[in-house]
Each structure stands twice: as structure tokens, then as C-alpha cells.
Amino acid sequence: MSQVLTDQGTVALTAWVRLLRAHAAMARTFNAQLQAEHGMTINDFEALLLLSRAPDQQLKRVELSERIQLTPSGVTRLLDGLLEAGWVAKGECASDARVSYAVLTDAGRDKLAQASRTHTAAVAQLFTERFDDTELEALALLLGRLPGAAEADAGNCEVGAAD
Amino acid sequence: MSQVLTDQGTVALTAWVRLLRAHAAMARTFNAQLQAEHGMTINDFEALLLLSRAPDQQLKRVELSERIQLTPSGVTRLLDGLLEAGWVAKGECASDARVSYAVLTDAGRDKLAQASRTHTAAVAQLFTERFDDTELEALALLLGRLPGAAEADAGNCEVGAAD
DNA sequence: GCTAGTATTTTGCGTGCGCAACTAACGTAG
DNA sequence: CTACGTTAGTTGCGCACGCAAAATACTAGC
What we know:
The structure is a homodimer.
Chain A lengths: L2 H36 L3 H12 L4 E3 H8 L3 H14 L2 E5 L7 E5 L1 H23 L4 H11 L5 H4 L11
Antiparallel strand pairs in A: 1-3, 2-3
Helix pairs in contact in A: 1-5, 2-5, 3-4
The first copy, chain A, binds a DNA duplex through α1 and α4.
């Protein structure tokens, strides 16, 4: 019963497995590179990038958690490292003593710029040598529909807060 | 200079970030599900799946390492768990005492079948409710060109060995 | 046979992160 | 203003895994 669905399921499984493997391979490579060249992990980089694009170079931990797809505890550990490195500072919220902001420091902006030079180039190279413009946009579009991916670049649809 | 390339780089970065986030979100979900329902991780499942598709339900650790995109040490730890659970047995190679095979046991096949029922359904559902046939195939095809993804389903292009 | 070089696997150590439980602070209801 | 539920963040614990170094076994040259 239902051969068509079975086949679609197989393709889905294939896509998932390939995403898993591609992630494992690329994450390992990029992590090693970032660690060797800049002493940071992929998520360190991503956090700095996210902060640099945020309104006042700052984000609530909860927001960071959603954007970077980490649990709250993961964010705590991540920021521990960034705070210690001096790339991020702890900001408090006047109206709500529970929330604390992660604020990008000058050192952090500097470090990000520095790391960006090699890292984004490496990423760009890896993708552009495998895909042309059309394919790349198609890939980005398709990936954007997966869970977690949409929240990633939702850097400009939030308002309010800070009351 | 090179605005076009810059833009292409941006798209590449976006694709990469989305892949990262999608992986984080989906891996977290599926891991929790597999753990709760079957007491295994995604990689446990993937290893069993790979073994079940291998010629004699067995694979050299090195091969498994390449297919599943884990370092050799990762494979050792992974198989430690599978051996202890009784889903995989240790096979020796007559011609080369260095290599040891991971052999899928009956219990392992059983467990895989059991886990497959819920897990592949969950994966299939997640993908098919977001993509139609054409998109799904396009996604799988594009992902297949990324590093590590090609090796994933190279289950039938190897010969020889076992001499 | 003995030594050098390479391939396979394991182990010590460190790290990143999820889960569950906890604390602290806010909001609302009485 | 006390009580309860909710939200933000932290911490103890455990696990998965990478790296580097080791042990073992194969291979080649002498």
C-alpha cells in the first residue's frame, strides 16, 4: 500500500541523511579552521555575527537562543566563553532585572571582522565552487523552509521590547 | 571590486547558516525522539541503517567512519554503545588482524526495523509537509554535492576487500 | 630476520551542549 | 501584600565526539 508515499519518504530520508553528513563534514572542517586561526568555534562566530547585525549590537539571551538554535543552557556556556574572551559584555535591562543582554564589544567587532575575512571566504568558496548562482539561491531557499532555519535571519522583523 | 561575487558570497553564507540552524533544530528533535522511544541517538540509528544496507550486514570501521562522517575515535565510542546494546557484533578479518568489522546482529536488525517505523516516518513527515516531490528531489540533489554527503549512500560502488 | 614506514583501532583528555532542576524576578489575583 | 504561575537564566550531570598519542599489525627494504 502506498508506493508513492514510500518513494517520497525515501527521498526525504536521503535528503536528511545528506544534510546530516554534509553538516558533520563541514562543521568539522570549519571548526578546526576557526579554532586554529582565530581560537573560536562556529557558534562563537555565529553569535558574534548575530550580535553585529542586531539593532544595538545586542541581543537578549533568549533571542540569541532562538536565533542560534541552542538551548538556554547552551547559550549560557557559549556566552561564558565570549565574555571571558572579552568579545561580548553583559548588559542589564532597566525594566526587567531577569533579562540580561549580550552586547558586542569593540574587541568583539574587531575579532569578528578579522575572523570573517577567512571564514566567510572559506564558506563562500566551498559553496560557489559547487553551485552556480541559481542553484545556490535554490538551496538557500529550500533550506530556509526547514525548522530553525527561518529564525536564523529574522534580524529585522522584531520590534518593541525594552519597555 | 566584484559586487557580484560579494552577493554570491552572501547567499552562500545564508545557505550555510540555514543549514547549520536546520541541523541544530532537527537533530535536537530527532535525537530526543529516538532517545525517548528507542534509547538510541541519531548516529546509532544511522550506523545500524548503514550496516543493514552493507553487503553482508557488515562494514569495516574505517568505512563506517567515512560513510557516517565521524573520526575513527568517534566510531569506536559509537560502536561501544552498539556492542553493549547487542545490536552490533565484532567481526574479525582473516587476512588483516588490524581491521575489525562491525556486524549487524539479529537484535540490531530488529531494533532498526522497530526504530525505523517511527523515525523514518517522522523524518518523512517533516520533509513532505514542507516540500513537494520536485522540491524534495532538488534539495536532495543539491545537498548531495556538499562534502561528506556523497559518501553517505555510496553503498554499492565498493568491491573486493575480504581477501 | 630486522628496521622503517604506513594503516587500523583504542585511549586520555578536553569541550560543547542537552536535560532536568534550580533560583530569581516578573505578573496577576485575591 | 501574600500566593501562585510564568519567564529568564544558571548549574549539576551526563554524553557524544574531536584531537593527539599510543598500541598493534601489515608492508617494504636491507
